[in-house]
């Protein structure tokens, strides 16, 4: 693999996580403006479903609906709805940077589950890094203090659902075309959240909120496209250390857009999660090169 191709792949991955961080920040703005949570989730996925369909038709034609694992495809969509709902709810309680840092526990959690359920060998150092990342989460949430509320555990719910989502993605990637998988996921999410749009009252919202909400779907589509393009050029293990730059992008976007800055202890926790996550990714690279 040429060095230029690798650099292009890493650049695309960093661009993708920057888009995801910006999208999360816009989600926080929309929710703080009074938009109903599940209605925002619906519009986000409906826009992504339309955009994905427009891309899928010229690439796959009628074959875009062909799948050998329809049940798993639907289950993947269900876990994404639940995870996204937890994510958006978290944005009402904490800064985008804090939420993103906790979300970055997912790769380490996937490794832990692979070791426990699939009997894969997980070295002690990786378990130590996982414990360190979780300790960083506790520093951010600070249970037992006056600042803590039980609803602040929602980011951990997002980690759980996102972990299942990633495991399903890994399973489906063996037999399914990525365009088909993304299409089924976005369609499933749209159907599941449709009642929220019917029941929600959004008539009081100004036009700019509607515009930002549609922008969420477009930015999510762009981010996923960039992500796929990155993985076409470099492996997942090469990309993983750079995904933790999303924490920095999230802090920057939150500061620029909303003026929110994490406090001292939240910053300590975020740094701990990032360092442990990067360490886990570098350990994977080292093991593969031995």
Distance between the termini: 19 Å
Strand content: under 5%
Q: Which structural class is indicated by helix and strand composition?
A: mainly alpha
Low-confidence stretches: none
Number of H- or I-type helical stretches: 12
The counted number of beta strands is 0
Q: Calculate the mean pLDDT score and round it.
A: 80
Largest sheet: none
Measured as a percent range, the helix fraction is: over 70%
- Element-level helix/strand string: HHHHHHHHHHHH
Please tell me what the overall shape is.
globular
If you compute it from the alpha carbons, what radius of gyration comes out, rounded to the nearest whole angstrom? 19 Å
Commentary on this structure:
With 290 residues, the chain is mainly α. Helices cover 78% and strands 0% of the residues. The chain is built from twelve helices and no strands. The chain has helices at residues 3-32, 37-60, 70-90, 96-103, 106-117, 124-141, 154-172, 178-199, 207-231, 236-243, 245-258, 264-289. Helix 1 runs parallel beside helix 11. The longest helix has 30 residues, at 3-32. The mean pLDDT is 80.
């Amino acid at each position: 693999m040429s060095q230029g191709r690798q650099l292009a792949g890493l650049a695309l991955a960093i661009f993708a996580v920057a888009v995801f961080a910006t999208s999360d920040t816009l989600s926080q703005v929309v929710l703080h403006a009074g938009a109903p949570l599940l209605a925002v989730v619906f519009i986000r996925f409906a826009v992504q479903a339309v955009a994905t369909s427009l891309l899928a038709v010229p690439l796959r034609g009628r074959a875009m609906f062909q799948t050998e694992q329809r049940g798993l495809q639907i289950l993947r969509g269900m876990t994404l709805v639940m995870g996204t709902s937890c994510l958006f709810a978290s944005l009402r309680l904490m800064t985008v940077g804090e939420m993103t840092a906790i979300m970055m526990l997912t790769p380490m959690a996937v490794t832990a589950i692979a070791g426990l359920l699939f009997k894969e060998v997980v070295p002690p150092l990786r378990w130590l890094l996982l414990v360190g990342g979780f300790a960083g989460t506790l520093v951010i949430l600070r249970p037992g203090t006056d600042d803590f509320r039980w609803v602040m555990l929602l980011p951990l719910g997002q980690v759980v659902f996102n972990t299942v989502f990633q495991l399903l993605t890994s399973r489906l990637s063996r037999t399914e075309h990525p365009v088909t998988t993304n299409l089924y996921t976005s369609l499933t999410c749209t159907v599941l959240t449709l009642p929220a749009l019917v029941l929600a009252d959004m008539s009081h919202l100004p036009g700019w909120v509607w515009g930002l909400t549609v922008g969420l779907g477009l930015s999510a589509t762009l981010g996923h496209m960039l992500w796929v393009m990155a993985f076409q050029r470099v492996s997942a293990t090469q990309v993983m250390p750079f995904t933790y730059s999303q924490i920095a992008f999230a802090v920057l976007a939150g500061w620029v857009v909303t003026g929110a800055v994490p406090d001292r202890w939240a910053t300590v926790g975020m740094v701990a999660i990032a360092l442990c996550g990067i360490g886990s990714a570098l350990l994977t690279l080292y093991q593969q090169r031995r």
